[in-house]
Amino acid sequence: MYKVCTLLALFVVVITATAQTTDDQINIYLNCPSCDINYIKNEINFVNYANDPLRAQVQILVSAQSTGAGGALHHLEFLGKEIFEGDQFTLDFQAEATMTSLERQQGLVRILKLGLVPFVAQTPMAADLNLAVKKHEQNSATTLVKKDKKLLDSWIFEAYSSFNWDKESLRSTLDLRYGLSAEHITPEWRIRIEPSAYFQERVVRSNEEEIHSYRRQKGYNGKVVKSLNQHWSLGFFNNMYSNTYNNVKLGLWIAPAVEFSVLPYKDAVTREITVAYHVGRMYNEYFAETIFLKTKDKIFSQFMDVNLRIRRQWGDVNVFMQGSCFLNDWSRNHLLLNGRVGVRVFKGMSFNVGGSFRIVNDQITLPRGNTTLEDVLLGQRQLATAFDSNVNFGLRYTFGALYNNVVNTRL
Fold first, then answer.
1. CB 3.0-4.6 Å disulfide test: which of 151, 332, 354, 381 passes with 375?
2. If you ran DSSP here, which 8-state letter would residue 123 be given?
3. Are 181 and 157 in contact (CB under 8 A)?
4. pTM value surpassing 0.85
């Protein structure tokens, strides 16, 4: 028994020793919500992966932003620390909408390897570096096709639908959603048209009686935005809709808009501070007479959006604020504040807090009359409220082994 225990202890020591980091390898901290960390550790095994950013010699921040073609632009920041202090640069990876998840991860790995080269080249591991450049032969036929631009070259179309049916002994829910989006994006223009529809049926059975409730929504959203420079944009918005939940039989909203970006738009992937102002006309026809004894409304309204988004090595900040009111009655207003802050407090400790608060004084579509119990329980009708809010916060503390490069996906 003693020999068995000795061999087992020796085996554990050997396994632990092989898992230790080497002095030649640099320590990195990867902050990439869209990355498959196990895949990256398996493909990039010449660095040590730190669990704490304060223990890293290189911090890598990866931000993703959707593109007009349905893909994503990944912006990678490489920040040198300790012996690499002052060394920093950025790289971009464009993931196309047609790429599979594996192809996207392979693309990210390629860019990560490329970005790590300047740091590894300053270590004893530089002697093991090999550089290979794949030269593509120019295809004249392909070149001619690229020069022949067509009208739909900058458009992307997407059709979607979803069906969901939940059924139990005493209740069931059917959800059906479908729509189409068409988007045109160039450095100068952004145009989007999106018709959509939604249908929901809920059935509740009680005492051999069935209660059916329905919710229908359809319409389209459209916008045209013109880029003026790195700080200003002009836009035009147009919505048409019908929604049984909001008691709107036919709604129409038309509004021009202007947006100012405090920082250049090219920095929007990691830092964004924008202010947008809309003013326009709203027209509503209602299914049922409202609490203001109206069957239709024609209203001029205005609203302003303020958006702040920052992502740095110390954490991230996302704040959105929107205020609106009717031009003919400023007491009919709406204020929304939504935010989230995540901060690394000290080694291994991070704190995040978020929430939203909304003041509602513009519920002009509420139908007149008493709300039935079925409407309240099934959530098929909008209820009167003066505000709504939520708050959330959390702590995370990581301790133990500072580095772990092992990939183990078993069970």
1. 381
2. S
3. yes
4. no
